[in-house]
Amino acid sequence: MEEREFFLGWQITLPGAAKRVWHLVERFGSAGDAWKATEKQLVALGGFTAGGARELVLRRRGVNPEAELALLDRKGITFLHFGDPEYPEPLKNIFDPPPGLFVRGKITGNDSQAVAVVGSRKATRYGLTVASRLAGDLAGSGVTVISGMARGIDTAAHRGALEAGGRTIAVLGCGLDVAYPGENAGLMEEIARKGAVVSEFPLGTRPEAWHFPVRNRIISGLSRGVVVVEAAPRSGALITADFALDQGRDVMAVPGNVTSDLSRGPNRLIRQGARPVESAADILEDLGLERLFRPEEREAPGASLSPEEEAVRKIISSCEPVTLDDLVDRSGMPAQKVLAVLTFLEMKGIVRQLPGKVYSSAGRRQTMVF
Predict the structure, then answer these.
(1) pLDDT of 63-77, one tens digit each?
(2) Nearest 5°: phi and psi at 307?
(3) How much is the pLDDT for 150?
(4) Among 219, 211, 161, 218, which Cα is nearest to 190's?
(5) Which of 61, 280, 311, 365 fits 137 for a cystine, CB–CB 3.0-4.6 Å?
(6) Who contacts 190 (Cβ-Cβ below 8 Å, separation ≥6)?
């Protein structure tokens, strides 16, 4: 067998245990030599107990890397080991990179310019709208959007990127033949066609709680920066942000309503020094990626507005300044929807908020098209 097959064998034998695999490779010199090691050698060189070495050998005997590789080929799944030229370069530089990745779709060189958009599974309408818009604007500017395909913010980010015609990568905490959550099976297929779905867990692996913190280091590792949209104080999104800091990635956060528990995570990150994000332009500027904007977009004198945004803009321009209550009454939209619309009008430089929740036109000072 070749080194690729040996790495595949270890990825199946010790799923989600990158540190243990790298320990064996370091001790024995290669994945192949570690795979061939006897129980005695695993004890003497590998640092295993006698019982641990015996268990590892038994598990190893149940894996046929060549047959597994043939199965992956039949299912249209690629296995990239650490030494493969197509293995993502950003992942090579983190502390414990996955020895191998299972990939549906294709990872390209352009994916090195990637941003992760993550957040709560129980997101508010505001959070979902922000995540979708940010992801769409990033994807439309040539940036790959990375997330974990979970409910809520992750799903909104993937869909926003796809609707903008851009690339997105989903990192799973289960095997690539397992759609989790189940309602995202169609989304998973679309991501695989237009981007990539990746996992370090072998086929058939069901989602378990410990898998998700493990996969979060890959989400941040593939990215230039991580944007947290909404997150409770104890959430996977904040774990991803911690990994990002450890990996030397930028951490950014969308400010939220101080009365919402889902705003406590991002607001805390901002207090700790994370860049506050109000638009994709903030993200691109922070990462030095402004050049990815097309010149005609940067110089556009007007912004593309949704029907709801145009309705609110007209109300403000006809009777400015105007209170939030007046906007709700005049527009006929729910207060939460009006607040979300106002947020994006502020992002686009069309509206500004004055003290006392009063809004007025901000003039033509926008620099990009949303």
Answers:
(1) 999 999 999 999 999
(2) -55, -40
(3) 97
(4) 161
(5) 280
(6) 162
Residue type, position 262, single letter: L
**Distant-in-sequence, close-in-space partners of 10: CB < 8 Å, separation ≥ 6:** 21, 24, 31, 34, 35, 99, 100
219 with 116: CB under 8 angstroms?
yes
pLDDT interval class at 310 (50, 70, 90): confident
- Asked if pLDDT for residue 292 goes beyond 80, the answer is no
Q: What is the pLDDT of residues 79-95, one digit of tens each?
A: 999 999 999 999 998 99
The three-class DSSP label of residue 361 is strand
- Cβ neighbors of 341 (< 8 A, separation 6 or more) are 306, 308, 309, 312, 333
pLDDT of residue 367: 32
Q: At what angle do helices 125-140 and 280-287 cross, to 10 degrees?
A: 50
Per-residue pLDDT tens over the stretch 152-182? 999 999 999 999 999 999 999 999 999 999 9
User: Which tokens go with 221?
Assistant: 């590792």
Average pLDDT, the chain: 89
- Bridge partner list, 358: 323, 354
Measured between alpha carbons, how far is 17 from 80 in angstroms, rounded to an integer? 16
- CA 309-155-338 angle, to 5 degrees, is 20
CA nearest neighbour of 194 among 157, 163, 216:
163
Domain 307-361 annotated CATH 3.30.1340.30: no
Computed over its alpha carbons, how large is the radius of gyration of the chain?
A: 23
What is the structure's pLDDT at 354? Answer: 73
What number of residues does the chain have? 370
Tokens of 358: 């009063």
Average pLDDT over residues 21-40: 96
Topology of the domain comprising 109-293: Rossmann fold (3.40.50)
User: How far from the centroid of its chain's Cα atoms is residue 62's Cα?
Assistant: 34
